[in-house]
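Case study 2.
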Amino acid sequence: MTTLVRPALSLMLLMTLITGAVYPLVVTGVAQVVFPEQANGSLLRDDQGQVRGSLQIAQAFQGDAWFQSRPSAADYATVASGASNLAPSNPALASRVDASAAILFTAEQGPVPLALLTTSGSGLDPHLPPAAVAYQVPKVAAARQVPVQALQGLVEQFTLQPLVGPPVVNILALNRALDQMAPVLK
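Prediction:
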């Protein structure tokens, strides 16, 4: 019996040490050397060094002076992140989308882009398609009293083309640049 148990326990201990300690430490060390910013959360800091958010997690912005992120089923809380789990046929989803569309709708611009009405799978996606950001440009320009063309240029500057997938705009980075370009009038 001990001839079977001893090697099994030794192998279990060895694999626990390798997969539970050595491998995570090696991966963390390599990540810190090769990708230090990403390994530490892609944090965005203000001029005083205070953390204002992460480029990987959406945030809520209040008011017309800011570009708005996608809606979040978890109210942008990382602990409870996730989709709403409402099926497309669920009346509650249709009601929520209709209510959001009524708030965001502007007759001159046509239908509200779907990305501004539906949550992402995680509820924390910090990116929007350029069309969803462009839909918000006139409202933000009016609130900040800046020319629409200036904001369109800023949106183009912050439009990213990932290796895979369609172009996206990081809303937190865009709003930070917007606040530096044209601070909110008080």
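The beta strands are 43-45, 51-54, 127-128, 159-160, 168-170.
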